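Ticket #4471: structure export looks truncated?
Reporter: QA, pipeline team
Priority: medium

Steps to reproduce: submit the single chain below to the structure queue and open the exported record.
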Amino acid sequence: MSTWILLRGLARESRHWGEFPEILRSAIGNAEVVCLDLPGNGRLHRLKSPLRVEEMAEYCRTELRSRGIPPPYNVLALSLGAMVAVAWAAAHAAQIECCVLINTSLRPFSPFHHRLKPGNYPALLKLAFLGDTPGKWEKLIMRLTSNRLEQHEAVLDAWLAYRREDPVSRGNAIRQMFAASRYRAPERKPAVPVLVLASANDALVDPRCSKQLALRWGTEIACHPTAGHDIPLDDGPWVAERVRVWRRS
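Actual output as written to the record:
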């Protein structure tokens, strides 16, 4: 039985995957799907987020070892989580069976204004340094990461509940942004199979980041025509099917 590790992005937690873990499990069959929180997020919100992506990867390894879940691992990860997956594969390729990287953006392959679209700077800086009400915070994140807002009213209610139960501090959000901004991926692809997934209409990260990464590393890439940054939220079955076909090819 294969083991799939799912990692979310900045200031998000394992519950933000919603129904996707079951969608993935149904598509690939006979798999254990494990959703991990990064330090500072979810049930780990009281911990201080590391300032280095590599430390986040080491936390994942330690956590899985403490749970008695042995490698190899298939890692499917979004945004900041995908950076963690890359750092993990670069340092410990023998533990990783494959990586699926969704809408990530990595130095040195893309400039900063592609890695975070400039139109988002004012709103994100306001949230990070001044804060806002939980409702406004989650509505902004939903607007930046989904292109199907009308379908996700119930999801937004759930996100608000997560924030009330396990709030991510502004300090941890800033620390995660700092870690993401300074992480530099290896010039050469880690010695594991990699699939890159992107969205042509990502409002947060320019899809050219994923395309450039796939070009430089010589990996397969698939691009969703309409979904937002959070493709598993907007079209989880599409992601699961891309993974299923890729793993069988």
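Status: closed, not a bug. The export was complete when the record was re-opened. Leaving a note from the reviewer for reference: Residues 231-248 form the longest helix (18 residues).
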